[in-house]
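DM from R.C. (forwarded with permission)

"hey, sorry to bug you on a friday — could you get me a structure for this? deadline for the figure draft is monday and I only need the backbone to look sensible"
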Amino acid sequence: MGSFVDDGMPASREDWPQGVLEALDPFTQGDVIACPDFVFHGAPFAPVTRTSKSYADDFEVAMPVMVDPDDLPPWALVTTGTCDLAEQDAPVPRKPFVQVAPIVDMSDAEPGDQKLIKNNRFGYLLHVPLLAEIRAGLWVADLRIEYPVEKSWVAGQERLRGWATERDQQIVGQALARQRQRPAMGRPFIDHVLKPTRRRLGELRRDQRGLADRVDAEISEWAVEVDSRLDPKRVAIVLLSDDSTPSEEVQQWWRETVDHLREGVAAEGGGLTIIGPRFERLDELSVGEYRKLTPLDTPHSRFSNE
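My reply, with the result:
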């Protein structure tokens, strides 16, 4: 029994529409194309977005709703993996769709948020730097939305680059992996570690912008060693840097922050033991040691059950 997706699919590579797979051959994950019309299933009777609210006066049932063409951005980001585009290694290509995410202009964001966006500190927003050379703006792929389009349509689109080098463009796959792999952490961790840390980071950005920038720049990601993700009793906090040890000022801020977390747990009787912080360099940490950790990306990122 086949999937409905297989209905009508070409039976061989030679049966695909002429030129489609060949046209897809240069495309890679992270390429930029024109933004297609966006449709999603909405509930105008209980609208959440402006798009579904615009249907509320005329419809009272769940239904497909289309984003107003005036709201569509000019571009979309290809999020499908490179090997799944032209399917060069498949004798019979079986994947008719390409996933894309809209690329929106966020140049009206607050200056502090713009800096975070450019440094890719929001988990679901990905800065696409080269597009500003084509049209003024702060162009950002919104990874909260992915939409399938048939490969034949993609094959007819102009292919633009969003990053200067292949190495730079690898950030697309990394960002998508973080979105899908981010862990579900239990309420004690969220209440006694995550939220207080975010508050401290917000206060730091408000009061000491320079130090906040160094904290963001010098700590690539943070991680924890926990006895349980969903019901933790013991949490060891580990700060990871790329290829250099964080400055003493950044380390001191994290030490004070972890002390603050411990004080908060003690005051609230949270029953959570917090250890650390420990500072590790990713270029020195062994694979075995890294696998003991639960990587958390940056403290700005959200968890799957939050």
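R.C.: lifesaver. The CA atoms of residues 63 and 132 lie 36 Å apart.
me: no worries. Residues 301-306 have pLDDT under 50 and may be disordered.
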